[in-house]
Write the structure tokens for this entry.
Amino acid sequence: MHEWEELKRLSLLSAGNLRTLAYTAKLPLASLRWRLFLGVLPVELFGQDDAECQQVWQLAADRERQSYQALKARFIVDPTCVAKEETDWKRMNPLSLDRDSPWHQYHQDQHLRNTILQDVSRTFPEEPYFRHSRVQRLMADMLFVYAKVHSSLQYRQGMHELLAPLLLAVDRDAVARTSEFPTGLLDCSFVEHDTFALFDRLMRLCMPWYQVPPALSPRASDAQTPIVAQCQLLMDKLAALDPELSAHLRQMDIEPQLFGIRWYRLLFSRELPRLRDVLALWDALFADNVSGTLRLVDWIGLVFLLANRRRLLQGDYEDTLTTLLHLPPLPRPSPDALEQTAPLPSSPQSPNVTAFPTIDLPVAAPKIPFQSVSQPGLRPIQRLALQAAYLRAHPSHGAAMLVAGQYRVWEQEAWDVIEDLDTPAVESSTASDSPKPQPAGPLPPLPQARKMYTSSTLQQKRNCTASANYTVSTSPRSVPSSPPQPASALELASVLSPGETLLSLGSATAQAASIAAQCLEILALGSLDRRKAETLAKCLHAVSRIWQDEVVRLSNLGPAGPNSQGTAESQLRQALRELDSVYIDISRSET
């Protein structure tokens, strides 16, 4: 199996390397790796002979599958099927009040099932995968069985959002079983069984955050609940790492459970804009599970607070609470900003001994590549996971300020993503209720982003252009506490190329620049006939003319009136639509 061989090659047949790569690499077979990290399969066998792994892992997988099948047969019973084998018609009466009647238990379970189905139907509404009736049925059955097994805990709202990414990962990796290893572990006939095994292990780690005392006495405080105590612990750690931010939140009288309960119970799945970011964060979170606890969760929450430190300190009560409840997207630093990012030193800094007396990492803990935080290819959430691991290893005020400083640099010169371009989560062929046709659909959206230049970054670009032997310094620069103002159009035009200037002017012009770049690449290939090339060049000329008029308008001493601004924007969008249409037609004909 190609994905399995690739996983072994990247990890060098080492379980430790497999954990380390989860922080920075995009690895295949997420569901298999999570089963290793969470203890469903013995991870210590990874890297050994495939025959030995196959024997031990397959036995463990079969045991989990048989266990779930038995639980499902016990708790999910169709009374109409039982009635065919019963002779006691009084007991099998659908209106029977006999406690031994399967109908009595069926009616009692309906309230629980309806509650679960209501939540399942709202799971990740922006993801088409979770709109399939089969997927919703699988989730409802697994959550129902889990609630029946754990009758003291029952089903709690939020469990469905922990289950959903697990099901997606398992279903995406599922294949038809063959004699080739490890297809038996990824058998598409046992997607539900394997997902439940993962969910059961994850809930063992998260269960304290879902527990609520049955009845608190009048004198009891909320601190008796484990989740509230965990939120308070988060604030205690923040007070040791960043006293100023901690004092500000306390002054605002913002209780940590207002935002912390959702962070912990859902493992930040609501705080990230895309499900694939959730999968990337959980990769690191599960890989770090070497002692039977999700030790990284607290530190991830701390980095989220440090990443928004400036907003939190400058906001009033309403702004601060809004930021905490709706975290802004993490910045996507430009290559220039990454080169200027202060590195995370590997040498320990002086910890706050009173707050963190001892932090002993297990021997099997992954060796985190902290220096990779400025690696260009990383996702923002992967950088955050590295920073969280760094804070845990070096819990000090200096380390916290270093992390906060990195975000200030990244915010100063960052790519402002207008529309996400990453490949969406792939729907498994087994997820739909019927085989999916594969027609030739429209082309995926084109890159749409802009880069914000400031006067300081333009000056640095001038220096870089003037010196052939220019070397970018990696030392951090001083960053003002307030956000920088964008450079004027006149400054842009004097330093940047037309394409770079176009990228810097805003959303509409960014779309034009992105499509124009694609069109220019097609023209450069010289593969178009004269008619198509002339049509494309004509559209490019129209966009260029409108854009140049906009640059002139912006560089005037006084801003133009709203009418002229609206006219230029409207003309640009019209030209953009025409250019987009021509580009799609030509691209389709060429392919």
In short: The mean pLDDT is 74. The first strand starts at residue 332 and ends at 333.
